[in-house]
Amino acid sequence: MSAVLDRLVQIPAEELAADEADKVQWALAALEEVKTHPRANQYALELAQQAKERGEASCLCASCADLKGQLAASRSPAEAAISRAKQAEAELKSEQRKVSRLEEEVEMWQERAHKERSRRRDLEEWKMGHKALVKIQA
After folding, report:
1. Which residues are in coiled coils (predicted)?
2. What is the DSSP letter of 88?
3. Do 105 and 113 contact (CB within 8 A), yes or no?
């Protein structure tokens, strides 16, 4: 049956007539192999979308809802792990941006502190020079 599904999903959903699409939907809802087939669930949803776009309610029946439920339920642990990894990656990038901004801020404050130390040093040198000048003049 898997070979039949392999061939069936090769037919573009938009090429099936309304009655053909309805029968394919019914068959996909009845077949147990659809749960494990890599493309059959998505194909069934494409057929449902085509029927919706054509304004045909006959294909949007309980079997379509069942297929959507099966698709959601058949999400493998690997897919869930990939989803969690992508979310963690996005959070990591956000944290890296925060760290980068903080590093820039630290650098700015270090530069300000350096300028302030330099200014104070110059002021002390001027005071010492001024005191020496006052002593010489006195």
Report:
1. 78-119
2. H
3. no
Q: pLDDT tens digits, residue range 29-39? A: 778 777 788 78
Domain hosting 32: range is 2-74
Contacts 24+ apart (CB under 8 A), 66-74: 66/29, 67/25, 67/28, 67/29, 67/34, 67/41, 70/34, 70/35, 70/41, 71/41, 71/42, 71/44, 71/45, 74/35, 74/36, 74/41
Instruction: Supply the pTM of this predicted model.
Output: 0.40
Beta-carbon contacts of 5 under 8 Å, excluding residues fewer than 6 positions away, are: 31, 33, 34, 37, 39, 40
- pLDDT tens digits, 55-87: 765 444 555 556 566 656 655 677 778 888 999
State how far the Cα of 11 lies from the Cα of 3, in Å rounded to an integer. Answer: 13
